[in-house]
Amino acid sequence: MSEKDKVLDEITKAVLSYDETGLLSGVKTALAMNIDPGEIIEKGVAKGLRIVGGSFERGEAFLVDLVSASDTAQKAVKELLEPEFKKRSQKSQALGQVVLGTVHGDIHNIGKNIVASMLFAAGFQVVDVGEDVPADEFAKEARETTAGIVGASALLTTTIEGQKAVVESLKAAGVRDKVKTIFGGAPCSPEWVKQIGGDAYAANAMEAVKVAKQLLNVKD
Q: Which among 97, 134, 129, 96 has a CA at the least distance from the CA of 112?
């Protein structure tokens, strides 16, 4: 295992053990090694969160475990990785505007926050509407802004219907043909997105950036 892989593995383990001090130390080490912040998130922080999320879905972990891991990860993202993204982001005109949030009934925010950070770093303007957001709020923001994309995350099987409600609300507001939609989260899949009439599925934050660029015809 390379030194880079070892550091990323330590970051994942720190998330799994809710070790805030160890996580911050690991992220600082990774940044000092010039590991890309996006890679630190995807192969370190988010990897740990996916493991905890999978355990929770299988009934092998409790909500407190999910919350503890998320809180630990959020500390590193907010204090170290987001500032790094902002430092490295281009000063050019934004590639486009994205309305982003977690669907109604779902209070999880770490995945959504990571996607927001990655989109910002890529040059998008992000309108973060938060967590537990009613479907019509997504539509309202899409109607009142110049957003080209609406993205909605669902982390639980009990809240995934909220993504379908977002598509229906966009239609009811008369803006469905003006915006593209991206959906993601543990229970989400390409088949589900097709079923509800969405435009795209993103399995992780890096893919969300790639898909957003494709939907808006942005060339790298």
A: 129
Note whether 113 and 211 are same-domain residues: yes
Last residue of a domain, one of 88, 108, 128: 88
Q: Are 151 and 182 in contact (CB under 8 A)?
A: yes
- CB 62, CB 56: distance < 8 Å: yes
Query: Which of 88, 113, 130 is where one domain is finished?
Result: 88
In Å, how far are 129, 138, 163, 206, 220 from 105, measured between CA atoms? Answer: 14, 14, 11, 25, 36
Domain assignment present for 195: yes
Sheet holding 180-184, edge to edge: 125-133, 97-103, 149-153, 180-184, 200-201
Let me know: does 80 contact 209? Beta carbons within 8 Å.
no
Per residue in 10-57, pLDDT (tens digit) is: 999 999 999 999 999 999 999 999 998 888 988 898 888 878 877 876
Quick one: 103 and 186 in the same domain? yes
> What is the total count of domains within the chain?
2
Q: Rounded distance, CA 217 to CA 64, Å?
A: 41
Any domain includes 61 = yes
Digit-coded pLDDT (tens) for 169-183: 999 999 999 999 999
Q: Residue 183 in contact with residue 167, Cβ under 8 Å?
A: no
Cα angle at 178 between 174 and 179, to 5 degrees?
A: 110
Claim: this prediction has a pTM higher than 0.90: no
